[in-house]
Design goal:
Blueprint: H1 3-12, H2 14-20, H3 40-43, H4 46-58, H5 77-82, E1 87-90, H6 97-103, H7 110-143, H8 152-175, H9 196-213, H10 229-243, H11 249-264, E2 289-293, E3 327-330, H12 332-337, E4 366-367, H13 371-374, E5 375-376, H14 396-399, E6 403-404, E7 432-436, H15 437-450, H16 454-468, E8 471-473, H17 480-485, E9 496-498, E10 500-501, E11 507-511, E12 516-520, H18 529-544, H19 550-557, H20 560-571, H21 596-601, E13 603-604, E14 607-608
Parallel strand pairs: 4-12
Antiparallel strand pairs: 1-3, 2-7, 5-6, 8-9, 10-11, 11-12, 13-14
Helix pairs in contact: 2-4, 4-7, 4-8, 6-7, 7-8, 8-9, 9-10, 10-11, 10-15, 11-15, 15-16, 15-18, 16-18
Length: 620
């Protein structure tokens, strides 16, 4: 959406968010309408419908009127990055113990259960708000059909259906067997007894309906952030790839769906990797964005709730500019994964040597340039905020020496930083990518590999790698910390330094004072499916690192128990507490346990409508 329109709607329609909510404290609460319902007498207007839809978008990230903590972050950094091995919990031993429990696979303990409930509350809050929008829309169309311009109501319905599909997909990725709610449901204590493939089909059906209703080229009201028909089709392909873990027939369907999106040219890769995660307005909601949470600052909300709330812990600690809080720290395992061989290809594809030592500034070994757009490393410029130093790490002996970087706003980005609430310097308006075009292309590459179209997959992966080779981290800042360490940065504040192509045009490299960056493309045709599959999967980790995807990828690829065991074994000598991790065994860890409070709330008499996932107990 247009940023200022989005901000006005977020703040002025706050009361509508409350009405659509599930849990909210209010004065004289016994005399209020039942929570989880919508007062149609108040909201059955065009403004009410629009407000309810904005509330549905708002639920993409943690919200003060719903879950309200870090387990519901739009990025899934707890559930996808920390559990998947891209990152450690971070900070120190005593801070946010539930995340430590989740990281070490103690998923059934009480505090971890509470975090799981935050995620459940967030996604089903989104479902409730989406369905409330559809019901309100039906009421207005029945009582006052002239309130909407031609086609407008249909497009609103399409947005609500898209969001309902997204929230159910998030629930499906987390818990597998989940209830699916439509706007006509009156009994909210539905059983979760649908076959998994039926849930996939319901999500796809909602996305098909949304695609038929949504505008094709431009978002409604020309407001960036709203979804289009092509966004719904791209998301459908995502669901089909996930469905292929259950039924291989989905691979062919995904190729059809995602190829159509690719050929539409509606989305495209940003010209360089540094334009993807950024606070610069010129690249906000750019051509790579399919779905993102529209973080907003300086919009009149007094506590910063509309900013990047779910991500706000994930900044370097004091004495950095951000002052807090040192969570979501990249793992040694992830950082080492960015090493490349002499051809600029992932060293991890050649065997275990990639993970034998740590990666430090100034090392001679070549690195994929995406590393220093993803990870803060000591003595390497941290975007344009000076160089990253060890003092920015709260407790490196506990959580390693690295900081997250993608979610960080640039110092030079105008009005990106918030000015209200607790530690205002760590809240910003960087959009939180939930699904972006590079992710979609790599899902298509996976499908092409499984269909035997290996050269199609190679072309896709090479397009991703070519983009990665455009720029690397530059000096960024000319402050004394940078220039004293690197005299070549005197007078040079270039944030993104171009890489140089060699004469063959197949290899890009840059020797900077802190790293030797190199990235190559795959020049040899792919003829072996297993080799192609490994290359695509490696590219997903490199491209989407720290974006909350890796654990979900490991699980749908199969063999997540082996992958997690290998990760824990490699990290135990580096991060002591991981030696205490509970063994990750299947089928118990195939899905997260359903929050115990939700199972209790599902009871009708003494019968639980929600059945717990395998290995996590039964209803008492």
């Amino acid at each position: 959406m247009n940023r200022h329109t989005w901000q006005r709607l977020l703040y002025s329609l706050a009361t509508l968010v409350v009405i659509a909510g599930v849990t909210y404290a209010c004065k004289d609460f016994l005399n209020q309408p039942a929570q989880g319902t919508v007062d149609q007498a108040t909201l059955a207007t065009k403004v009410g419908v629009e407000g309810s839809l904005i509330a549905a978008y708002r639920a993409l990230d943690c919200s003060s009127s719903s879950a309200g903590s870090w387990g519901c972050a739009a990025s899934n950094w707890v559930w996808g990055s920390v559990v998947g091995g891209d990152a450690y919990k971070g900070s120190d031993l005593g801070d946010q113990q539930p995340i430590n429990d989740i990281e070490t696979f103690l998923w059934s303990v009480g505090e971890a259960d509470g975090y799981l409930n935050q995620k459940w509350a967030q996604v089903y809050e989104g479902v409730a708000r989406s369905n409330a929008t559809i019901r309100l829309l039906d009421a207005v169309e029945a009582s006052s059909p002239g309130q909407f311009a031609a086609g407008e109501a249909r497009q609103i319905r399409g947005e609500a259906l898209f969001l309902r599909a997204h929230y159910h997909f998030e629930a499906y990725r987390m818990w597998g067997h989940v209830p699916y709610y439509h706007e006509t449901d009156t009994d909210l204590r539905k059983p979760n007894d649908l076959p998994l493939d039926s849930i996939v089909k319901l999500i796809i059906a909602d996305l098909d309906s949304a695609a038929a209703m949504l505008p094709v080229l431009l978002p409604r009201n020309l407001e960036k952030g709203r979804v289009t028909s092509w966004a719904a089709q791209a998301y459908k392909g995502r669901v089909q790839v996930y469905g292929a873990a259950l039924n291989p027939a989905y691979w062919a369907q995904a190729i059809t769906t995602l190829t159509a999106v690719k050929n539409s040219n509606h989305f495209a890769l940003e010209t360089s990797f540094d334009h993807v995660w950024t606070a610069f307005p010129a690249f906000r909601n750019g051509k790579e964005t399919i779905l993102a949470f529209q973080a907003s600052v300086k919009d009149g909300e007094p506590s910063g709730w509309n900013s990047n709330w779910g991500e706000r812990l994930n900044f370097p600690y004091a004495p950095s500019h951000f002052a807090c809080c040192g969570f979501h720290q990249p793992s040694y395992n992830l950082v080492n994964y960015f090493k490349v061989d002499a051809a600029g290809l992932p060293l991890a594809l050649a065997g275990p040597a990639w993970n034998t030592d740590t990666t430090y500034a100034g090392m001679a070994a070549a690195l994929d340039p995406r590393l220093d757009w993803t990870v803060g490393r000591d003595n390497v410029p941290y975007k344009d905020w000076s160089v990253h130093i060890r003092q920015w790490i709260r407790d490196a002996s506990y959580s390693g020496p690295y900081s997250p970087k993608k979610n960080i706003h640039e110092q030079r980005a105008p009005n990106a930083e918030n000015n209200v609430g607790w530690v205002a310097s760590q809240t910003n308006d960087v959009p939180m990518h939930i699904y972006r075009y590079a992710d979609m292309l790599l899902l298509l590459a996976e499908a092409e590999v499984e269909a035997g179209n290996l050269e199609n997959a190679r072309a896709i992966v090479n397009s991703i790698r070519a983009r990665a080779g455009v720029t690397a981290q530059g000096c960024g800042s000319a402050d004394s910390t940078v220039t004293n360490r690197y005299p070549s940065c005197v007078g040079n504040t270039t944030l993104a330094a171009p890489l140089q192509a060699n004469l063959a045009g197949t290899l890009d490299s840059l020797q900077s004072p802190w790293a030797f960056y190199k990235i190559g493309i795959y020049t040899t045709p792919w003829t072996v499916q297993a080799t192609a599959r490994a290359a695509v999967r490696a590219e997903r980790r490199l491209e989407l690192a720290m974006e909350g995807q890796h654990f979900f990828d490991l699980r749908r690829w199969g063999g997540s128990d082996t992958a997690i065991a290998n990760y824990i074994n490699s990290e135990k000598p580096r991060i002591a507490y991981l030696s205490l991790a509970t063994p990750y065994v299947l089928p118990q860890y195939l899905y997260y346990p359903i929050p115990s409070v939700q199972i209790e709330l599902s009871k009708v008499g003494s019968v639980c409508k929600l059945a717990q996932n395998t290995g996590w107990g039964t209803c008492n």
